[in-house]
Amino acid sequence: MNIDPFALELADPLATAAGTIDAREGFTVTYRHRGQRGVGEATPLPGWTESIEACREALDRAAAAADEDASERDGSGHGAALLELDAAETPAARHGFATALLDADARADDVPLYQWFDADVGTVSSVPVNATIGDAPVEKTVEAAEEAVEAGFEALKCKVGARSVAEDGRRLRAVREAVDKGVALRADANAAYDRETAREALEAFASAGVSYVEQPLAADDLAGHRELREMGVDIAIDEGLAEHTVGEVLDADAADVLVLKPMVLGGPGNAHTLAMRARERGVEPVVTTTVDAVIARTAAVHVAAAIPDVRACGLATADRLAEDLWPDPCPVADGTIAVPQSPGLGVEVEP
């Protein structure tokens, strides 16, 4: 197993629960499996996953445990390495190794990764994606929304919570009046509210036709989110999945929508399995990135492509990076992101 560090500058600073970061640091992982060379990416995000140091240590343990010769020969040498990578403790490290395995498996089976997840899904050439509208005064919010719609986006996620509920309500209503009624409008609060304020916000946002509000309350408040579901606006859980398992969220009836980040969940395979489990429970999955580099971002596109009739996902994040590792096989156009059709991930990396 080869583990190579990288650091990519961001186009703009990224605010996280653990502070503001200016670059994404991580590791590319390459592994020989079933006669193929698979590639993965482990890019920890403070506040969501393990630290960069813990990620490297976990990958080193996995590399020491793996029998790569047996894995390349007959696919049997990777089990001990996976056992070193706990999805709850070191999800980014597990994502890196698991993605490399999946890339090699799909290459060996001569199918794109999304069809490896679900052979019955057929050919999926693109997945709908949302545009993100940042916090800004009413006029600039409307301007950004109109530009996104003109670019073909049919779903807009507006950041809320930094301003008063009244001001955010005006922003969302102004967007609703400015764009076609068929454009889905979402609000992302990033856990900004207490329970009382969240109720006020949902009442205000309902008049703007908001389809769902993402993470209105603190990540640990599943009971509060369950109560908010009674107000007529769907509730999406995002940060909550860094505090709770998907099973805990589903059992608590805390969500109408789950925002699934493969890097946080321990790999693309885990993310797809959990997406389909949520769908079985009547909860809709939406796949997003953690502002990853091209390998992990492409893996997330494959996860979304393997979910039938998936809602617009948060995958249009390549422009958040000032630079990337390799050329992007998933360009965004007309509100959709392209799905690679070559075997495996479809990311061609240098040896």
TrEMBL record:
Listed GO MF terms: magnesium ion binding; O-succinylbenzoate synthase activity
Active site (catalytic residues): K159 (proton donor), K261 (proton acceptor)
Co-factor requirement: a divalent metal cation
Annotated keywords: Lyase, Magnesium, Menaquinone biosynthesis, Metal-binding
SUPFAM superfamilies reported for this sequence: Enolase C-terminal domain-like, Enolase N-terminal domain-like
Origin: domain of life: Archaea
Keyword Lyase: yes
Entry's EC annotation: 4.2.1.113
Residue ranges occupied by any Mandelate racemase/muconate lactonizing enzyme C-terminal domain in the UniProt entry: 138-235
Gene Ontology biological-process entries: amino acid catabolic process; menaquinone biosynthetic process
Pathway, per record: Quinol/quinone metabolism; 1,4-dihydroxy-2-naphthoate biosynthesis; 1,4-dihydroxy-2-naphthoate from chorismate: step 4/7; Quinol/quinone metabolism; menaquinone biosynthesis
A Pfam family matched in the record: MR_MLE_C
Catalytic activity: (1R,6R)-6-hydroxy-2-succinyl-cyclohexa-2,4-diene-1-carboxylate = 2-succinylbenzoate + H2O
Top enzyme category: lyase
Gene3D superfamilies for this protein: Enolase-like C-terminal domain, Enolase-like, N-terminal domain
Binding residues for Mg(2+): D188, E214, D238
Function summary: Converts 2-succinyl-6-hydroxy-2,4-cyclohexadiene-1-carboxylate (SHCHC) to 2-succinylbenzoate (OSB).
Similarity section: Belongs to the mandelate racemase/muconate lactonizing enzyme family. MenC type 1 subfamily.
PANTHER family to which the protein is assigned, alphabetical: O-SUCCINYLBENZOATE SYNTHASE, O-SUCCINYLBENZOATE SYNTHASE-RELATED
Protein name: o-succinylbenzoate synthase
Source organism of this protein record: Halapricum desulfuricans
Gene: rspA
